[in-house]
Specification:
The chain has a 4-stranded antiparallel β-sheet, with no helix packed on it. Strands 5-6-7-8 form a 4-stranded antiparallel β-sheet, with no helix packed on it. Strands 9-10-11-12 form a 4-stranded antiparallel β-sheet, with no helix packed on it. It has no helices and 27 strands. Helix content is 0%, strand content 43%. The chain is globular. The mean pLDDT is 92. With 299 residues, the protein is an all-beta fold.
Length: 299
């Protein structure tokens, strides 16, 4: 089966997973069973996000060999208002035809960001179908994002890139971590305005407890590349990566432990419901793993 690159749940039961060859899966029973949605195209789906049961977005990549005109772009966004029954392509004005965009970051129903190569960043400007380019102080590949609210957020990427905005993406401040030495950061998560983590190549994990003023490195349980990270609160978090790696911490990352995944496939993305602490990870080979916390038996 094709590789899966993204997963998103609206609640404990309703979720979507997306990946290569236009694959879009949906579940209504918490990931126990999945149904294949009708393929909109055979293009790679890099990311999926739903604001509610009807309103969603897909980030797609067309093969450069299939570009028919110079006006067609390699990357494009699809939007649905009927739960995925139909999709409309949204225009990203001024996007270079060959530019690759790889990920969304949303802060609320309409405020979204999409980003990728050469520091390219687009933001939804107060409407579901209007996206405009934003300037950032880097030409590095942007790979991950996390927004606390519509105004405050972070982006990470290649070359140990760490960017912060406090004005809804109008301006960005670049942060430096000397110890990283140009490490590739693949994902970032903030649970509040102070506590955040980023993960990346070679088992890289960094943490801040003061809103990004200072970042400290943490020791991962192994040296595998890490592709995504999620924290339920400032204590418990998870990271996934190459060779089926799953890491778990219950003390804010002071100690990370390897959890058995049962797969050797790379795990690309991770999702957790903060209230129920239920999770799902997806990856290559069509891998889908679900997690539910153990419930103590009554005495």
């Amino acid at each position: 089966m094709t590789g899966l690159r993204s997963v998103y749940f609206l609640d404990d039961m309703r979720g979507w997973a997306a990946g290569g060859a236009g694959t879009l899966l949906t579940t209504s029973d918490g990931g126990q069973t999945w149904q294949i949605k009708r393929r909109w195209s055979g293009d790679i789906l890099w990311d999926v996000y739903f604001a509610d049961a009807q309103t969603g977005w897909l980030l797609a990549e067309r093969s450069i060999h299939n570009l028919k005109t110079n006006e067609e772009t390699r990357s494009y966004v699809l939007h649905t208002k009927d739960g995925g029954a139909t999709w409309t392509r949204l225009n990203l004005f001024g996007l270079d035809p060959g530019m690759l965009l790889v990920r969304f970051a949303f802060a609320g129903k309409a405020m979204g960001y999409v980003f990728g190569e050469y520091g390219t960043l687009y933001a939804s400007s107060g409407g579901e179908e209007l996206w405009s380019a934003r300037a950032v102080p880097t030409r590095r590949l942007l790979l991950g994002g996390s927004f606390i609210d519509g105004g405050r957020g972070w982006l990470v990427g290649a070359g140990a890139t760490l960017l912060q905005t406090i004005d809804g993406g109008e301006s960005w401040r670049e942060h430096k971590i000397a110890e990283l030495e140009n490490a590739r950061l693949n994902a970032v998560v903030f649970v509040d305005e102070r506590h955040g983590w980023a993960v990346g190549a070679g088992g890289t994990i960094v943490r801040t407890a003061d809103g990004g003023k200072k970042w400290e490195t943490q020791t991962s349980a192994n040296g595998e590349d890490l592709f995504d990270v999620k924290f339920i609160d400032k204590s418990e978090g998870w990271a996934v990566g190459a060779n089926g790696t799953i890491l778990h911490t219950i003390d804010g990352g002071v100690r990370w432990f390897t959890e058995r995944s049962g797969t050797g496939h790379p795990l690309a993305r991770l999702f957790f419901n903060e209230s129920s602490r239920r999770g799902c990870a997806v990856g290559f080979g069509g891998t889908i793993l679900t997690y539910a916390p153990e419930v103590a038996s009554p005495e």
